[in-house]
Amino acid sequence: MIKKLAKSVGEYKKPAILTPLFVIGEIILEVLIPLLMAELVDKGITEGRMDYILKMGIVLIICAILSMFFGSAAGKTSAVASAGFAKNLRKKMYYNVQTFAFSNIDKFSTASIVTRLTTDVNNVQMAFMMLIRMAVRSPFMLIFSFAFSFKINARLSTVFLIFIPILAAGIILIVSKAHPLFRRVFHTYDHLNSVVEENVRGIRVVKSYIREDHEIEKFGKISKSIYNDFSKAEKTVAFNMPLMQFCVYSCTIIISWVGAKLIVTSGGTDLTTGELMSLFTYTIQILASLMMLSMLFVMMTIAKASGERIVEILEEKGDIANKENPVKTVKDGSITFENVDFAYSKNADKLCLDNVNINIKSGETVGIIGGTGSSKSTFVQLIPRLYDATKGSVKVGGVDVRDYDIESLRDEVAMVLQKNVLFSGTIKENLRWGKADATDEEIEHVCKQAQASEFIEQFPDKYNTYIEQGGSNVSGGQKQRLCIARALLKKPKILILDDSTSAVDTKTDALIRKAFAEEIPDTTKIIIAQRISSVQDADKIIVMNDGKIAEVGTHEELIEKSPIYREVYESQMKGAQDDE
Amino acid sequence: MSNQTAARPMRGPGARGPVGRPDMKINKDTVKRLLGCFKDFKFHMIFVAIFIILSASASVLSALFLETLIDDYITPLLGTSGTEGFHDLFMALVKMACIYAVGALSGLFYNRIMASVSQGILKNIRDKMFSHMQTLPIKYFDTHTFGDTMSYYTNDTDTLRQMISQSVPQAMNSIVSILAIFISMLRQSIWLTLFVLLFLVLILRIIKFIGGKSSTYFVRQQHSLGDVNGYIEEMINGQRVVKVFCHEEKAKEDFDKKNDELCKNMTKANTYGNILMPLLNNLGYALYVAIAILGGVLAIKEVPNLSITGIDTLTLGTIASFLTLSRSFVMPISQVSQQINSIAMAIAGAERIFSLIDEEPEADNGYVTLVNAKYDENGNITESTERTGQWAWKHPHGDGTLTYAPLKGNVVLDDVDFEYEEGKPVLHNISLYAEPGQKIAFVGATGAGKTTITNLINRFYDIADGKIRYDGININKIKKADLRRSMGIVLQDVNLFTGTVMDNIRYGKLDATDEECINAAKLANADSFIRMLPQGYNTVLSGDGGGLSQGQRQLISIARAAVADPPVMILDEATSSIDTRTEAIVQRGMDALMHGRTVFVIAHRLSTVKNSDVIMVLDHGRIIERGSHEKLIAEKGKYYQLYTGAFELE
């Protein structure tokens, strides 16, 4: 995991390596300065030698300036390195997500990908900054201080050998107790967020069923469990500081007692009073760096979970990838399904598509009709290779879709999804998704085809109208038409509309189809619809039922031979026929 | 849900809500309110304060003790071989051990109490935010982006957590230490203390400068973090569209721009943040040297020393211990300065949180309530405490009398005007009446105002002019909760909640039995597909019902409304994604359920509305035609055009 993450340091290797070097410089001075200070007091002040005070003062100031330099430099390089690391990490993940197939997105769920890209990256970044600054600082501090204290008096320094294990054991105990709690807290946080999310998105449902109290109760329960776990975890961690104090204080008292005896019995030869004072300083430095190490350890374990989640994203291979030497051009808009089976998950006991066979000629208009859950969407999603068939083969232009360069394939197969999305930005910007360099004329042209120009012209800013995130400021029908225009701009060989005019009134719907027939006659058009009127003039209508193609034919043929189709037709047309 | 939204205010690209503005201004009121959050934990905080004082005093005493250890205990013993001197030392060490024990235990206590306090405060704030959010009008949710609302619960609460659980105790601890050391310094020498104070002014200026810079960038960093996170969220949510359009490269490009910006701000913020500590520490050394020199000069010149214990001469011993004190004095100051960023961010976060809590709740001046009704033998209505299946409006009058009117489902709109945004009317002079048992349909182009009318009937929005009466009562007089309880709404965009299918259906009526839920599902024709799910009714839906198709979700939402069994039902494109065959079955079921009750139907699919009693054709916020299907067809107006439009393709 570390290896995988470390790769993201990338071009920030230099500051990442410089930081610990600067930190070492800072530490050397930090250990040196107290010694100089002791000198200044012992030889300067106590003996009242002004010249010595001045001399040592200058040396000290120089050291302080150096130390300030090292410290600031380390601060700066660590900031550069960690921010850069986070940037690279975020970028790598984001880029990799761009290679994900639909099935990968299904696997992680959108919300979880978002958390990994945001919260988890932040955690790891914090840990990284700690790591390059502290991971060097604490051990070095520990070693230097320990070495100096041993030099002063080895016998006295053995006291540290007793307390370091005690402190270490204590810390390990605390961390091992607290860690699972923290993990649980973070898990509950996810839960809390999802409750808020659902509540905000479904606020109309909440309000119309007057379920505010129910929601508050639901939220309260989770909030309470966060409170319980988090305060328990923090209470466990609260032992850290006192444990540390206990060790420092114990060492101080033992050193005082043994040290005093040593000074007195040896008459100050084995140990001087100044040295005793230094030992106290080292006590704090040794144990504090150990404490630091433990904090680092805790940070790392918290970050570890995040790191793992990040690596999962980094390591996830897009289920759908280009073959070697892929076919780059799509000959025409013909589509063939040969014995195609499909299931969303490998161990699903029911197939979503079961032995589907169909031949669609280039330029044909094909309607698809079928009940809710009859796998209409699944069927068409295989054409631009949003999913791979579990068995059998899907061919476009006579070539298996798996042999195409994905981008070339999808450029020629435009699909308007059922759950479609507009992005924050102007209408023009949104439409240009279809073709980045589209001229204004082209844009207006496709909007006319999609019957969107009329309402766009009514906006005060026309094509520059700003679309809110998720397209919340245009109506469902308007959104659908914009999405169709966006797809048309691609000038695809195959155009798939997955129930994309459901919120558009019948008349507009008819106009759109008329425009299709007149303007893009060579494009294969596949239209999934609920309304018979949307498909009845198609060259071919596929009736789907329960993952299978129940019947294929023209409107007239199907009225004759397909009971499902007839029933659907009658349910929609009865009133009209009575009137006519 | 989104049908009327064309009229909503359009916000420019820069308007991303009140995400932390880059300017750094600490609002005093925010700080005051933040402190107010500690109110519920007064006793806790008193104990915390006591323990912090004890703990900080112990560490100050410890520093002072080490001073005296050598001068008072060890030096006198030097040269003597007597063991009785060790007795004093032993006693002193025992005394210190006790003080240490108190200090360490106090540290443990306040840390543990603080854990409860900080988590308790956060819980209160979270709960308050959420429950307040439930009272906000729909308008709030229509005009705020989802990401903004989410960040109250994530980023902003998190900044508060950092501040309360770390910065506050740290600051308290440091202040106590600073005070204690300050007093000790005064005991040593007032002159030198004055000098330290002078130096302190310099230190504070530096803290203010660098700290200010760093806070500015930290707030800016939060801002771009929000920006990046928002972008990630939008893109990942639209990832499927990105894929379909092979828009990956462009998506990367925009992302890189934002990501670089974030990196820049983050680097600056952290640089300033990281520099502060070494700067202050080393200034501390400079102070040390300065005191040594000054003290040396004073001592050599034999300037009389002034301290709060009296006047004497400045001894070298005094200078030595003063030097040590000055070290302990600078330490807590630089520790506090480390907290500046987290405090600045927390205050910015708190400001946003308070802005949510201050958001005006949905006004409700209604006093007419819905009660369970019972009829006595004379046919008069009396209120009942148990569920009778019959409902009545309880209407208290100004003169103190109470009247009961049966709930029928009679809805009248009288000359209603409405606008979402001033100057942009959406509905004009809408008048209509719906008798109980009638099915009223609204037809019209998208944006004609169909959904808006239903938004007004259940008071998601309040009308600008005109009157809406429900069973003869002005709906403004009816308590909103009771008004809404009497209506079921099924919307086009289905929102399901994490939980089992059964839980989701039961959302309509929390005390419904499994059997009632299953019956409702059967009525909505959802039973068969639900049974095909891996765990049937116990299948857990997550992520807004992810695995289900739009049509299946609609069926579940219809079942949810059916189980609520309301006297008035509003179906807003409720069956738009359901195939017509299934729709016909569902409709039969619904008709049976709603027999004798009022139903409003909005649909563009005319087959859905054909069998309605009255069909209203809306155009640009006006009703242009009304009547039964037959009548409208015979009139050969707009409805006729719409209707036949579906057939004139050849």
SSE inventory with pairings:
The complex is a heterodimer of chains A (580) and B (650).
Chain A: H1 2-6, H2 13-45, H3 50-98, H4 102-108, H5 110-152, H6 154-201, H7 203-208, H8 212-237, H9 240-266, H10 273-315, E1 335-342, E2 353-360, E3 365-370, H11 376-381, E4 391-396, E5 399-400, H12 406-412, E6 413-416, E7 425-426, H13 427-431, H14 440-449, H15 453-458, E8 466-467, H16 476-488, E9 494-498, H17 506-519, E10 524-528, H18 532-535, E11 540-545, E12 548-553, H19 555-561, H20 563-579
Parallel strand pairs in A: 3-10, 3-11, 6-9, 9-10
Antiparallel strand pairs in A: 1-2, 1-4, 4-5, 7-8, 11-12
Chain B: H1 28-36, H2 42-77, H3 84-135, H4 138-143, H5 146-188, H6 190-237, H7 239-244, H8 248-301, E1 304-307, E2 310-313, H9 316-338, H10 340-358, E3 369-375, E4 381-384, E5 391-396, E6 402-406, E7 411-421, E8 424-434, E9 439-444, H11 450-457, E10 465-470, E11 473-474, H12 480-485, E12 487-490, E13 499-500, H13 501-506, H14 514-523, H15 527-532, E14 540-541, H16 550-564, E15 568-572, H17 580-593, E16 598-602, H18 606-609, E17 614-619, E18 622-627, H19 629-635, H20 638-645
Parallel strand pairs in B: 9-16, 9-17, 12-15, 15-16
Antiparallel strand pairs in B: 1-2, 3-4, 3-5, 5-6, 7-8, 7-10, 10-11, 13-14, 17-18
Helix pairs in contact in B: 1-10, 2-3, 2-5, 2-9, 3-5, 5-6, 5-9, 5-10, 6-8, 6-10, 8-9, 14-16, 19-20
Structural overview:
The complex is a heterodimer of chains A (580) and B (650). Chain A is α/β, with parallel strands linked by helices and 580 residues long. Chain A folds into 2 domains: 2-315, ABC transporter type 1, transmembrane domain (ABC transporter transmembrane region fold); 335-579, Rossmann fold (3-Layer(aba) Sandwich), CATH 3.40.50.300. Chain A is built from 20 helices and 12 strands. Chain A has a 6-stranded mixed beta sheet. Chain A has a 4-stranded antiparallel beta sheet with strand order 2-1-4-5, with no helix packed on it. In chain A, strands 7-8 form a two-stranded antiparallel ribbon. In chain A, strand 4 (391-396) and strand 5 (399-400) form a beta hairpin. In chain A, helix 3 (50-98) packs antiparallel against helix 5 (110-152). Mean pLDDT of chain A is 81; it is low at 575-580. With 650 residues, chain B is an alpha+beta fold. Chain B folds into 3 domains: 29-358, ABC transporter transmembrane region fold (Up-down Bundle); 369-406, no CATH class; 411-645, P-loop containing nucleotide triphosphate hydrolases (Rossmann fold), CATH 3.40.50.300. Chain B has helices at residues 28-36, 42-77, 84-135, 138-143, 146-188, 190-237, 239-244, 248-301, 316-338, 340-358, 450-457, 480-485, 501-506, 514-523, 527-532, 550-564, 580-593, 606-609, 629-635, 638-645, and strands at 304-307, 310-313, 369-375, 381-384, 391-396, 402-406, 411-421, 424-434, 439-444, 465-470, 473-474, 487-490, 499-500, 540-541, 568-572, 598-602, 614-619, 622-627. In chain B, the strands form 5 sheets. In chain B, strands 12-15-16-9-17-18 form a 6-stranded mixed beta sheet, sandwiched between helices. A 4-stranded antiparallel beta sheet of chain B has the order 4-3-5-6. In chain B, helix 1 packs across helix 10 (340-358), helix 2 runs parallel beside helix 5 and helix 3 (84-135) packs antiparallel against helix 5 (146-188). The relative contact order of chain B is 0.09. Chains A and B meet through helix 2, helix 3, helix 4, helix 5 and helix 6 of A and helix 2, helix 3, helix 4, helix 5 and helix 6 of B.
